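Convert to structure. Protein one:
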Amino acid sequence: MITEITPRDAISALAEAEACLREGGVLLVPTDTVYGLAVLPTMPQSVARLFAIKSRPGSVNLPIMVADAEQLEALGAHVSKTARQLLKSEFVPGALTLVFGINAEAAPDWLKQRKEIAVRIPNDKFLLQLIGRTGPILATSANRHGFDTPAQVDDILVQLELQPDLAIDGGSVDTVPSTLVNCNVEPVVIERIGVVSQTEIERVLNDR
């Protein structure tokens, strides 16, 4: 299969990306951290294809991207006082992924089996517009499982086991992931250091 590649600055790019997701496709898209692979969470076959494309174990849950706090609340996330501090910081929207517990009664059907979720609001106009149209998406770094994420679309497509349906080409993208903070425990735990440093996280949490 030949993946269609569309420049991000093309007039049609946003509409093509939305159509790809709504039709059950897997989208390769630049983010404010690394290139990502994205699907709509309400389409199980698309989610399965994403796992296959990355050669990723199905037991590892995928992170979620939302456009704003309203979409986050609709996921049924338990947002603690500490988590609210981080959500109000200068790193959101941005390269900060937060882990929340879930209220199963308030969560959508596709989250009923999860005990926690990792969520990020990206600081990227294109992505925010896309998620504003489609609702939350499942998104993970565009690399073969266990490998680093390349900075260029062509290198990503060579590395992947299978091919996504559409690639949005944003040129060279930084290869530093978001910082991951688990807010489902108290005190919170920084599980991965990325763009946002430990010092910056601690500064926000100590600013009470």
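Protein two, convert as well:
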Amino acid sequence: MNSKTIFGIIGAVIALVLIVIVAVISIRNGLIARDEGVKAAWSQIDTQLQRRADLIPNLVNTVKGYAKHEEKIFTEVANARSRLIGAQGPEAKAQAGAQLSNALGRLMAIAENYPDLKANQNFLRLQDELAGTENRISVARVRYNETVRDFNATIRKFPGSMFAPGLGLKSAEYFQPPEGSAAVQKPPVVEF
């Protein structure tokens, strides 16, 4: 072999090694970016769930002023709120969120019995904020589940499946409503 051929083979091997290195780095970075995307999308849901939990004491206090004898529902709402704040992970948050929605629905039903409360500007503002937050949670849940779907598909498909275990990446959990009767319940709707 002449020196030109040897240099050509060495150049081709070096180019091939560089291409493989760039591909490995690109795949690895892509997996990490998708994993971070799942975390960021979950953070959006968590933020909206926290916002809802923060609005509830104000709503309860407003209703309390009008419905002093309805103590049981206030306790249920407070307990459901505490469970939501303490829940960890999508499944636990979904179950706690369903319990909170159920308790809020009963609270809103009680509010129906008090015409002065229904006209109270603070109550109306809080109710609107709560409804807006429910919509934000719904949008964030859709975005999160889409991000989880893309991430899970990426780590299951080749070549992601080769790298995911080495990076400690596992399938992310979808944010779904809990099974059973709570799964078919909708956010509380109050009509005036």
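Residues 36 and 151 are 10 Å apart (CA to CA). The two ends are 92 Å apart (CA to CA).
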